[in-house]
Amino acid sequence: MTPIHDHRGLGLPESISVALFDLDGVLTDTAAVHRRAWKAVFDEFLAGRSHGAFRPFSDSDYLGYVDGRSRADGIREFLKSRGITLPEGEADAEEGEASVAGLGNRKNRLFRSILERDGAQVYPGSAKYLSAVRAAGVKTGVVTASANAAAVLSAADLGRLVDVRIDGVEIARRGLRGKPAPDAFLAGAEALEAKPGQAAAFEDAIAGVTAGHAAGFGFVVGVDRVRDGTHAEALRRAGADVVVTDLSELGARQ
Fold this sequence. Notes:
Layout: E1 18-21, H1 31-47, H2 59-66, H3 71-81, H4 100-118, H5 124-135, E2 139-143, H6 149-156, E3 164-166, H7 168-174, H8 183-191, E4 199-203, H9 206-214, E5 219-223, H10 231-238, E6 242-244
Helix pairs in contact: 1-4, 2-3, 3-4, 9-10
């Protein structure tokens, strides 16, 4: 039997049967936690190599090179912007070792310690929207580069509203390319038995919007949490069909 989808109040095309959400910055406010952890790791690393010309990790660095990407890809892209190349290192590399794995392991420990201490903050508009999507009969999924998605969803009490999770652990296990490649979004749609044109992506990162657009999704929503006057336009250029500052705005677009 074909499921019935009632899209009133969702701001989605009637053809959409699956909604796939990024986690950090879209459903939860853990993007700020990620940014704090990355800044601590990169500033410590850069200060040790600066020789008196230290240029700290900035918000624009986070948005341009790290946000939406896998941990390892974010490290590679940011360091490349500074003309630095590091060896990959072993998966169990010591924290802070001068390798991609070493920096990644230190960042992960810092992130988890902040999460355990402060918890995961949920955007109220996102929680209401996610509940409304489920009530409308639309299947839901989380597609995120984060390897900590299970812990974040549990801390935020959102796991019960998510049908499938394609996260950093699953991406690595299956050998999928990370965002901005479309692989993870396509895997999410396939897991929910939907064609790309029947799926909507919700993303706050340029890399994520690029991935949703490249996947051929029927609708791509950009979420502008930065609100600096330029990020919204960057999301549109990356392929967002609509840009909002909060998911609660989508219902008003009917």
